[in-house]
Design goal:
This protein is mainly beta. It has one domain: Leucine-rich repeat, LRR (right-handed beta-alpha superhelix). It contains no helices and 14 strands. The strands form three sheets. It has an eight-stranded mixed sheet, with no helix packed on it. Strands 6-8-10-12 form a four-stranded parallel sheet, with no helix packed on it.
Length: 170
């Protein structure tokens, strides 16, 4: 398992939890068990893959609980999709400190409270999906700091922002 760089398990009708042995995929850059019936919480052992993991797709499963802050150890993450689960609680401030991430989808869950203003630290974001959660308040004005953002879906519908800038560079 040490030489596996990509693990794609989407649409396999998998059930149960992700085993802790997933942490043995020390060379994996891509992990996709989406569109299955996986349950339990998002495993914290995914944070042990911090040195190399670039893409995690856990969408369209039955995960519960919160976003484990240990995922933020995956500093090389480019894309993360945890949409269409039963996740809830607040979004940890550190979640938006993934400076290399260009795609983030947390839509269709039960996240509450506000969208953290630390969103402005995710300077590489190009596409963000927040829709179909139970956030209070609006989208933080800090989103205007994301000069590369071209796609924003705050309420469940994709809104392309290109070619319109979010802020003036003058």
């Amino acid at each position: 398992m040490e030489s596996i760089t990509s693990l794609r398990l989407d649409f396999y009708k998998l059930s149960g939890t992700i085993p802790s042995t997933i942490s043995k995929l020390t060379t994996a850059t891509y992990f996709n068990p989406s569109v299955n019936c996986l349950t339990g919480t998002i495993p914290t052992v995914l944070g042990l893959l911090s040195g190399i993991m670039e893409q995690i797709y856990l969408n369209n499963n039955l995960f519960t609980g919160t976003i484990p802050s240990v995922l933020m150890n995956c500093t090389n993450l480019l894309a993360i999709d945890i949409s269409a689960n039963n996740l809830g609680g607040t979004i940890p401030d550190c979640f938006f400190r993934l400076k290399n991430a260009f795609f983030l989808n947390i839509g269709t869950n039960q996240f509450s409270d506000t969208i953290p203003s630390t969103l402005m630290y995710a300077t590489s974001l190009e596409a963000v999906e927040f829709g179909e959660n139970i956030f209070t308040g609006g989208i933080p004005t800090a989103i205007g700091m994301l000069s590369g953002l071209t796609t924003l879906s705050p309420f469940g519908t994709i809104h392309s922002l290109a070619p319109f800038p979010l802020r003036s560079d003058t």
